[in-house]
């Protein structure tokens, strides 16, 4: 009888601890949170429309207080010729 009580107590402790472990994993590794962490913020190059990662590109200019990011070295020069033209195109 004593062995049965010890065995049942151990089984109960294992079940309880596994529930706490499951709850901790579920809380820290939610699928939506992990997808958001992996996703990069991308913007469009106003000249070509290509995707640009603002965190990694060195091609950036600020026009009227707003930052614009570019995909290749020729785009900032082209944008500077007529910024309003490219801003209108991006809004379409």
Give a structural overview:
This protein has 92 residues and is of the alpha+beta class. It has 2 domains: 2-35; 43-91, no CATH class. The chain is built from 4 helices and 4 strands; from the N terminus they run ααββββαα. The protein has helices spanning 2-28, 31-38, 74-81, 83-91; strands at residues 43-44, 51-52, 60-63, 66-69. The strands form 2 sheets. It has a two-stranded antiparallel ribbon with strand order 1-2. Strands 3-4 form a two-stranded antiparallel sheet. A hairpin with a 6-residue loop joins β1 (43-44) and β2 (51-52). The chain is rod-shaped. The N and C termini lie far apart (79 Å). The model has no long low-confidence stretch (mean pLDDT 81).
Percentage of residues in strands = 5-15%
Order of helices and strands: HHEEEEHH
Helix/sheet category = alpha+beta
Cα shape: rod-shaped
Summarize the biggest pleated sheet.
2 strands, antiparallel
Number of helices: 4
Ends distance: 79 Å
Helix amount, in percent? 55-70%
Please indicate the count of domains. 2
- Which spans of ≥5 residues are poorly predicted at pLDDT below 50? none
Query: How would you state the average pLDDT, rounded?
Result: 81
Strands, count: 4
Placed side by side, the strands forming the largest sheet appear as 1-2
Rounded to the nearest angstrom, the radius of gyration is 27 Å
């Amino acid at each position: 009888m004593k062995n049965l009580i010890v065995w049942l107590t151990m089984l109960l402790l294992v079940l309880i601890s596994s529930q706490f472990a499951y709850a901790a994993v579920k809380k820290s590794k939610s699928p939506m949170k992990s997808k958001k962490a992996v996703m990069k913020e991308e913007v469009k190059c106003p000249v070509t429309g290509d995707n640009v990662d603002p965190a990694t590109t060195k091609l950036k200019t600020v026009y009227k207080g707003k930052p614009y990011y570019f995909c290749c070295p020729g785009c900032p020069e082209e944008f500077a010729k007529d910024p309003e033209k490219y801003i209108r195109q991006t809004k379409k």
